[in-house]
């Protein structure tokens, strides 16, 4: 049986090996870099809303703490959806999952018949199949000149892009992009939709039905492998700076 000293030393050595682990160090460093990027998502969303230059309808899927983003959005009409998995108080308009929200919208149970949104911010459950459904449903309720904005499209390491939100000992330090990138990358390959990703705040993906924000990705990654994504990150996401995004958007001003 191990002595108390041996038990303590084992834990000390384990902690030390974790802190010196190259994957762990890389994850910590890349999280730090991402946390210190600006602008944050609300600034990009407000820029888009202002660009539209009309009375706008804004929808946020996945809100958690409204003061972090929702309250900072400047739009005449704002709607919020969240089932409340992470904040028991859940001060939102529709306390349901995004799937339920869109079903209720489709059947006319909620909101005005025929309502369309100008910007839909998808930041709910960060798993690829859910994000894909959120985008498909959003496209149905998006005005032709509207935008879909997706948070967390640019995971800095494979650990940030894990499917498991609950594993906290990860080199990601608990920062979680989930597999949102896979859904965004899937839409990046489609003709008839235009997209780019602003390189800030964990990757702010933007999709337009009408404005050419970027043509479809030609990157071949049929199995959605993270390493292949990482090697072709810029092209996979059409990753651009905020300045480049603003310049691009302004070329479409009448
Ligand atoms: C990352 S937080 C949202 C953060 C917020 N948008 C912001 O910018 O600060 C994710 C939220 O999505 C919610 N959520 C989880 N599953 C969902 C689902 N199926 N539909 C909609 N929201 C969901 C969680 O309850 C959580 O509050």
Automatic annotation (TrEMBL):
Name the record gives this protein: Class I SAM-dependent methyltransferase
Query: Is Transferase a UniProt keyword of this protein?
Result: yes
- InterPro entries membership: SAM-dependent_MTases_sf (IPR029063)
Q: Which GO terms describe its molecular function?
A: methyltransferase activity
GO biological process assignments: methylation
Q: Which domain of life is it from?
A: Bacteria
Q: Which UniProt keywords apply?
A: Methyltransferase, Transferase
Query: What is the source species?
Result: Flavobacterium laiguense
Pfam families registered for this protein in UniProt: Methyltransf_24
């Amino acid at each position: 049986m191990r002595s108390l000293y041996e038990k303590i030393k084992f834990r000390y050595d384990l902690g030390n090996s974790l802190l010196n682990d190259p994957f762990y160090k890389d994850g910590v460093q890349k999280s730090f870099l991402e946390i210190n990027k600006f602008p944050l998502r609300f600034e990009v969303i407000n820029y888009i809303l202002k660009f539209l230059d009309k009375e706008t309808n804004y929808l946020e899927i996945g809100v958690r703490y409204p003061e972090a983003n929702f309250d900072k959005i400047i739009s005449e009409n704002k709607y919020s959806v969240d089932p409340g998995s992470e904040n028991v108080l859940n001060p939102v308009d529709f306390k349901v999952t995004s799937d339920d929200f869109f079903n209720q919208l489709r059947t006319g149970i909620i909101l005005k018949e025929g309502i369309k949104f100008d910007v839909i911010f998808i930041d709910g459950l960060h798993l690829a199949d859910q994000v894909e459904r959120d985008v498909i449903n959003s496209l149905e309720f998006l005005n032709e000149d509207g935008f879909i904005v997706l948070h967390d499209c640019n995971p800095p390491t494979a650990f940030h892009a894990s499917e498991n939100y609950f594993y906290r000992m990860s080199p990601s330090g608990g920062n979680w992009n989930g597999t949102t990138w896979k859904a965004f990358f899937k839409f990046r390959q489609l003709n008839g939709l235009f997209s780019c990703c602003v390189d800030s705040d964990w990757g702010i993906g933007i999709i337009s039905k009408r404005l050419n924000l970027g043509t479809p990705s030609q990157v071949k990654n049929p199995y959605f492998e993270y390493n292949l994504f990482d090697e072709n990150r810029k092209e996979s996401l059409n990753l651009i700076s905020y300045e480049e995004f603003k310049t691009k958007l302004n070329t479409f001003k009448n």
